[in-house]
Amino acid sequence: MKKHNDTYQSVRDERQYGPYWYSLLWRIIRPVLVLAGSLLVVAGIISSIWNAVYEEYLAPADEANHQEIAFNVESGQSLTRVANNLEAAGLIRNRTVFKYYCDFAGMGQKIQAGSYQLRPSMTMNEIAEQLTTGDGNPIVRNITLIPGWTIEEFAASLVEKGVLTDSAEFLELCKRGTAFADYYYIADVLKTGNIAQRRYTLEGYLAPDTYEVYVTATAEDIIRKLLSQTDRVYPAEFQTRAEELGMTMDEVITLASLIQKEAKDEDFAKTSAVFHNRLKKAMKLQSDVTIHYVTGLRKMSLDNDDLALSNPYNTYQVSGLPLGPICSPSKKAIEAALYPDETFIAENYLYFCAKDPESGELHFSRTLQEHEQAVSIYAPLWREYDAERGIE
Question: How far is CA 317 from the centre of its chain?
């Protein structure tokens, strides 16, 4: 009797509690299934949207087209202009998306000028990377004019570095100077009346610096680049100071060129003071570097024949400043020409000479007697310097 009752109770429990467990399990599983289904739907929507966006904006312009198209990026072109040109060439689908992509990826400022071979089948990223890597063919190069160089030395450097095939046109333009009369300071030089005697009209006016020029730059392009820099190294306040001294810009540049060749930076202002003091006393400047400019040799121990050279640049023969600048002076040399050392001016220093030719250090003297004593000490070093270089 008990066994029968147990079986009946079991059936009754199953009928009473079975639906409850199924319901409980369904309540647990149902939200999970709903969430999973929703995620699948959302993923499907996102995938559809992404595919649509990719096809419309991000995909290669034509994945099946592997033909190379010549594409040029000019120097100075903005990212917007490059993007516009890419879209017009059929290399990207959307210029705005390309621009934003480059900005976001940090490539916007890295696109290099050059000539490229691009394909419509390339992805936007592949195109951006190639444009930032460059085409391997530079369109610009650096040139340097060192303070103290003459026009002939600079021209030789341009030829040596392959910037110019020869120096003839460059030197002729610098000699005549007439092609650059639109620069006021060159126009003033052309009015001096001594152009026929000047070695180069533009000597001294090509500002020393390092410049970036196109590989296709002509001799005239290069000259104009350097002349334009002169505007920056000779500002309006320099012109005002020159007028206070009663000097023209040409006279300031000429004096600065002598200072540049005679001294190191630390002695510029002192050397300037000596020249200013001699000019005030109407003494010949007797600057050895003006003879070096005539002969083309840096001879430290000058003889009577050197001193007697008949040339408008020889300051042992002509009074005052030489005919024109003898090199390209630095801005520091120009400043020294305008602002000589006040102590040396007041104490009336009138002489200087080189100590060791290798160091460029100078010895300054007030009187001729002091100067001659210094010369007797250092002259053997000058003769030794010349002998070592085979200069007689």
Answer: 41
Averaged pLDDT, 314-331: 97
| pLDDT tens-digit readout, 330-361 | 999 999 999 999 999 999 999 999 998 888 99
| Cα–Cα distance for residue pair 245/363, rounded to 1 Å | 26
Structure tokens at 35: 């969430």
Average pLDDT over residues 208-232: 94
Q: How many CB atoms lie within 10 A of CB 136?
A: 8
Separation of alpha carbons 162 and 164, rounded Å: 5
User: For the chain, where are the alpha helices, taking DSSP H only?
Assistant: 2-53, 79-88, 95-104, 124-133, 151-160, 168-176, 184-190, 219-233, 236-245, 249-262, 268-280, 288-295, 304-307, 331-338, 342-346, 368-388
Neighbours of 378 (CB within 10 A): 17
Q: Is pTM beyond 0.90 here? A: no
pLDDT digits (tens, 9 = 90+) for 25-70: 767 777 766 676 667 766 556 666 656 666 666 789 898 999 999 9
C-alpha dihedral sign at 265, 270, 274, 276: positive
- Cα 39 to Cα 56: distance, rounded to the nearest angstrom: 25
Number of alpha carbons in the 13 Å side-chain half-sphere of residue 28: 5
Q: How far, in Å, are 253, 298, 356 from residue 391 at the CA level? A: 30, 9, 17
Of 85, 138, 90, the residue nearest 113 (C-alpha) = 138
Phi, psi of 165 (to 5 degrees): -75, -35
pLDDT at 1: 47
**According to the model, what pLDDT value does residue 109 have?**
83
Using CA atoms, how far residue 315 sits from 226, 278, 284, in Å, is 28, 12, 6
> Are the C-beta atoms of residues 192 and 119 closer than 8 Å to each other?
no
Residue 175 near residue 234, CB atoms below 8 Å: no
Calculate the CA 5 to chain-centre distance.
106
